[in-house]
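Hey Z.,

So I finally got round to the arginine thing we talked about over coffee. Here's the setup:
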Amino acid sequence: MTIYEKLQEELVKNPALDVFARELELGKEEIQRVLTKKEEQSEAWLALPDFESYPLVSFKSQIGDFVASETNACVKIEKPPEQIDADLAIPCFSLMAKGKETVAKLADGIKAYPFVADTSVVGGYINVQLKADVLVQETLAVMAEQGNSYGASNDGAKKLVVMDYSHPNISKPMSFGHLRSTIIGASLKRIYEFCGFHVVGVNHLGDFGTQFGKLLYAFSQWKDEQAFAKEPMKEMLRLYVKFHEEAKQNPELEEKGREMFQRLEKGDAKLVEQWIAFCLLSIKDFQKTYDALGMNIDLALGESFYETMLADTLKKLLDKTIAVQNEDGSVAVNFADESLPSFLLKKKDGSSLYILRDVAAAGFRLQAFQPETIIYVVGAEQTLHFRQLFKTLGLLGYNVARFRHDPFGLVSLPEGKMSTREGRVVFLEDVLAEAKTRARAIAEEKNSELSESEKEKIAEAVGVGAVIYSDLSQSREKNIVFSWERAMSLDGDSAPYIQYGYARAASIMRKAGVEVTLPERMSKLNEREKKLVRLLARFPEVVAQAREHDAPHIIAGFLNTLTQEFNRFYAQDPVLTADEQTKNSRLALVRAVAQVLKNGLSLLGIGVLERM
Ligand code: ARG
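And the result:
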């Protein structure tokens, strides 16, 4: 049951209810519930592996320690470029000054490690080749042990992160921008949890502000009851657009809208009731998207949740002379000698603004969750907003290192830009339905023997996967153009491409007809197999890197490369018809590839299918 539903129930019983005070109480109960649940999940956290238990990580840190003890210098061990046949590269430019012999001696020392096959000094680097048989045996052993947790770690030490994501606006259809925030935020949450952090997801629903005054006014004047009953989101959008059209002719309407919002902010029972209805209908609509994506957000605490805290927040800002009251009664923050533009916290009519609610929300969150970091997954167009917000929070005495804005670029369609005000929007429902239809067509073409229910399952996982991947595969900050051809491509860099790779691996294992286990000793690896092993061994570091940079595309790119290499192997190295020892080794490798594809895709929020 959502907070809004409870409020609605209580308001019916008691029309004089202090709605916003009650919303705060209900929200606090919700928070407690979520925090308790997280704590109960701690067992799962305890079971996460140490990062150092991964063979490649451990080899690197042993070598790193050795280099440090020999040279008194810390080195960052790198991944050599593709064309160099080595596993690790140690930059030695500064050491070179001490003479070639010093570096050569260091290379020899490294070679003495039992897991090192060879070292060579080339152009300022010591390149290290690991023993492929050791790397494969140890990596596959850890993988067999960790299974779905391979790549995870307890590094986050249960530090708490508040992830502010999705946050669509009530009474408007969820936009592509909000879909981006939802997909990126959900993936980051999974990645952080996989790395041992506690994450609380907060949906900062846009449920407050002058636009609700406008909508309430438009609703009172022009609503079409039937249309509202049938398709409420479309009707609310129509009213919102109409308001802006009418206001062009008749500027007094703006005043009416402001008045309505003031009355709502003061808790006018009739308006509150209508506003709650808008919230509930919208949330029901957003839920369709969350269901389609197979996700949920821990807490829905909309902007209205902070209403009761605004007066105090404002007072603090005024007392500390961070904010000033203007002659017309509005309240502003002016950063004296800063390049940052001033902004209003409160309008002259007394109504609050978006940024004031964000100041209050930040203070509340720090207190309620005691988080290490609050991450705001919000479009790059709000960069200025967050710079102003964080600066203000800093002046209030909060540690600004705790706040981070993870911006992302705009999505456009080949048709061009979208605009809610002008009613030019794409309904996500339509996009997801289209994705499903297209995925189904591919499934039918590829494998006509599939049953109806299998086709349906594929259409769903592949369709949604395609939409998610096409977003997460591109670096977050870039503007992207959504293209069906690219999203559904079977030639590479798409969810269907990787999902087909996984299904191919699953099919080989099925056809083997035995349970695949790790052989005592793997057979000697050829070049393609070695490449696969190097990739598999790197996965934990790839996850850690994606976490460090809040960059799911690092995982997406890695999975695409792994699938490419796997397809190359599949095309050239027979598994089931090979001699017994090779067959067993290759089966173990196939199983490991499948496991990493599955773990990686799941961090992006994409499912796998055993048959396609
Ligand atoms: N609802 C807002 C919008 O669509 C985004 C909210 C982002 N989160 C925040 N704490 N400001 O623009």
